């Protein structure tokens, strides 16, 4: 695992101001676990309130529009989430690809807009169960990843995190094996090195996401090339999320 693991909670369409107590607890605990980088991506409505609570953890958005402003009712731009306190944005999540028909090309445009607005991006990729059963998971994800990335990235290490989230593992309680995760993460790593060279390509963190919880985190975080986790359901309470953060911290203390 990378030197400083990155554990990110994606609250999806969950959370009202009552959830701020969870964010506060997570932030306070993270202050004693500095060797793990902890972040939350609440819904748009809570970005600024969570930002105001957070002394230690990073705050991000779950999406942004590719344009900076204009007549786009109901949309939120990258500079708007940055203004609210977001430091990063999750892009290309499979729920957006499925529910909003987001193409690789649109994800790429959003990524470019986010970087221009000074945000880091967490770019999500992942195959469906059918694609995995066909034996095409790695080739699919590699192609999806290349086509979703912003065309140029001045500093991939600073601006990019990749999240491998198999669609069939999200919210299902099912996860790939450690070997399957390792194989996919090695394929993504090889693509990063091909695109950005050895030094930059090896410095980008690759997170695993999909049914990560406090019980399985230790095992999943031990897979090859896993630099942290993107967590959905188990990030909604401080107790379960901090269990994952602790697993990441303990993993660091063990020999490889
Ligand atoms: O989609 C996810 C995080 O972005 C994973 O969600 P779950 O952890 O609920 O499976």
TrEMBL record:
Its EC number is 5.3.1.1. Transmembrane segments: none annotated. Belongs to the triosephosphate isomerase family. Gene3D superfamilies: Aldolase class I (3.20.20.70). Keywords: Cytoplasm, Gluconeogenesis, Glycolysis, Isomerase. SUPFAM superfamilies: Triosephosphate isomerase (TIM). The active site is at 93 (electrophile), 165 (proton acceptor). The lineage of its organism: Bacteria, Pseudomonadati, Pseudomonadota, Alphaproteobacteria, Sphingomonadales. InterPro entries: Aldolase_TIM (IPR013785), TIM_sf (IPR035990), TrioseP_Isoase_bac/euk (IPR022896), Triosephosphate_isomerase (IPR000652), Triosephosphate_isomerase_AS (IPR020861). It is found in: Cytoplasm. Pathway: Carbohydrate degradation; glycolysis; D-glyceraldehyde 3-phosphate from glycerone phosphate: step 1/1; Carbohydrate biosynthesis; gluconeogenesis; Carbohydrate metabolism; erythritol degradation. The keyword Membrane does not apply. It catalyses: L-erythrulose 1-phosphate = D-erythrulose 4-phosphate; D-glyceraldehyde 3-phosphate = dihydroxyacetone phosphate. GO terms for molecular function: triose-phosphate isomerase activity. Coiled coil: none annotated. The keyword Cytoplasm applies. Its main location: cytoplasm. This is Triosephosphate isomerase. Homodimer. Substrate binds at residues 10-12, 171, 211, 232-233. Involved in the gluconeogenesis. Catalyzes stereospecifically the conversion of dihydroxyacetone phosphate (DHAP) to D-glyceraldehyde-3-phosphate (G3P).
